Amino acid sequence: MKITLLISLAAAAVLAMTDAAPINRRPHGTTNRTLRAGHAIPLTRNSNFKQNTRGHIAKLNRRYPGINILASTGNVPLTDSNPDLEYYGTVSVGTPAQDFKLDFDTGSSDIWFPSSTCTTSGCTAHAQFNSKKSSTYKKDGRPWSVSYGDGSTASGILGTDVVNVGGVSVSQTIGLATDESSQFASGPSDGLFGLGFNSLESVSGVKTFMDNAIAQGVLEQPVISVFMPSVRRNGGVGGEYLFGGIDKSRYSGDLTYVPVSQEGYWQIAIDDVGYNGQSLGQSSQGIVDTGTTLVIVSDDAAKAIHDSIQGASNDPNNGWVVPCSLKDSSDNVSFTMGGTAFNVPLADLAYEDLGDGSGNCFSGVQGGQNDLWILGDVFIKNNYCVFDQGNSQVGIAPLVY
């Protein structure tokens, strides 16, 4: 974790904290004479005063927004599972810390994981949070529930505790699952870490981790940067979520920033789809979603893309399929945003062998999303993505492996 420390302002913060603990005092030399002007107000020491360095630094950060004292970045290494099906990182919760493998998801906003009181198979197959073992846990008690596109569900109660992501800690509202559907039992992660905007929170008024981290001034920049690895390109290693910073070594050229058109999801305008540089005449609003494995577009766009690929077909049982031999192809499908075309190699459209001896693979691009397209991991593992909450925009650039 990198630390930015401005010595002069840190010294000012220490002096400010010295003044913040009041003591009795009076003007020098006024014991036996009357003050000529003004009124002397005696100060009394606050016996309940507690030193709070982080709190005072956060106050200075808010007062002088151009300067961050002790602001930092948090680096969370990713594990690539199954392969390229799901990515998770370790998050610490409570005091002492209890560790959880969480799926970082820009397509939702809740942070949740199993409670130790949950007995369903979806919970017991994973690490479970024991609130009684955390000295910093505070009961909330409000109910919450979430459901996802695959039909999976989770529900429970809210609580508050310290959440540490790569060394960046905030006091955070968390969802403790007391019931999870069976789909979660076989998954590699213990729960989800939502990175969408707070309007997607299942309980109105709950602030996201990024809301709290930005408000408390603990991040160098109000961003989350994602390097999602690929088994095909680098063995699926070295991935990371970088909270509060941007790693310029991870991408080539400059980031293209695309404004968020509607907050909630990270929704942006997709201006065109191309094949080897030729426009296919397709466009839509879409979201950049780290919690979705594939790219999901409209039926028309899916047909236009696959009509350009020799041997592709729309299988009634498996959706769009492509020859597995595409894994050796150098052709590309591109998505244009902010005036820049970003490639997805056809090699990544040959996502997984059907296993029926046909030589065909499930395609990494599917149809059925006729309103809001989804640029999932198949796109993100080829393009560095910066989710800039402070400026409500997404920065994108080609990955460097």
From TrEMBL:
- UniProt key word Transferase: no
Question: What's the EC number here?
Answer: 3.4.23.21
EC main group: hydrolase
**Alphabetical list of Pfam families matching this protein:** Asp (PF00026)
GO MF term list: aspartic-type endopeptidase activity
> Signal peptide location in the record?
1-20
GO terms for biological process?
A: proteolysis
Q: Which UniProt keywords apply?
A: Aspartyl protease, Disulfide bond, Hydrolase, Protease, Signal, Zymogen
Q: Which reaction does it catalyse?
A: Hydrolysis of proteins with broad specificity similar to that of pepsin A, preferring hydrophobic residues at P1 and P1'. Clots milk and activates trypsinogen. Does not cleave 4-Gln-|-His-5, but does cleave 10-His-|-Leu-11 and 12-Val-|-Glu-13 in B chain of insulin
- Catalytic positions? 105, 289
Q: Which cysteines are joined by disulfide bonds?
A: 118-123, 324-361
Q: Answer whether the UniProt record assigns the keyword Hydrolase to this protein.
A: yes
Question: Where does the Peptidase A1 domain lie?
Answer: 87-397
The UniProt family comment states: Belongs to the peptidase A1 family.
- Name of the molecule in the record: rhizopuspepsin
Q: What is the lineage of its organism?
A: Eukaryota, Fungi, Fungi incertae sedis, Mucoromycota, Mortierellomycotina
